[in-house]
Amino acid sequence: MSNYPLGQNEASSITSKTGKKLSQITLDEVKKGSVTAEDIKISSEMLKKQGQVAKEADNPQMQANFERASELVNVPDDVILNMYNKLRPNRSTKRELLLMAQELLEKYHAPNCAKLVLEAAEIYEKRGILL
After folding, report:
1. Phi then psi dihedrals of residue 71, to 5 deg
2. To bridge 14 with a disulfide, which of 1, 22, 121, 127 should be the other Cys (CB 3.0-4.6 Å)?
3. For the chain, what is the largest distance between any 2 Cα atoms, rounded to a whole number of angstroms?
4. Which residues of 65-103 are buried (b: 16+ CB within 10 A; e: fewer)?
């Protein structure tokens, strides 16, 4: 199995979304202003590593969650919040969900997230919980 927990066993290879090493993210560096909010966001690569750990632990659902999360790293926060709101029952039309899936796929290169939204649109339609 992987060197889990990664934070202890692979600390030297862990980087944030901005490429800052885990060892560079300290309270002293925060106080100096050397660490920004972007510096503490997880990288796509680390989420994929966590997915690999889940796979090795025979947890395919968790692996799929980490894969989708790795795709969302480069999606702006406001888009993610909008997506969350639109995925709530009775908040969107099927067309809105289809357009969201298209945007995830084409603009953000997030095929697993797009697939999830398409599946939700179909299920919501069957259950009558679309606008």
Report:
1. -75, -30
2. 22
3. 54
4. bbbbbbbbbebeeeeeeebeebbeeeebeeeebeebbeb
Q: Identify the three-state secondary structure at position 23.
A: helix
Residue 83 tokens, joined:
């997506």
How does pLDDT run across 76-127, given as a tens digit for each residue? 999 999 999 999 999 999 999 999 999 999 999 999 999 999 999 999 999 9
Contact 10, 22 (CB under 8 A): no
8 A C-beta contact, residue 30 and residue 79: no
- What pTM did the predictor assign? 0.82
Nearest C-alpha neighbor of 71 from the set 62, 59, 80: 80
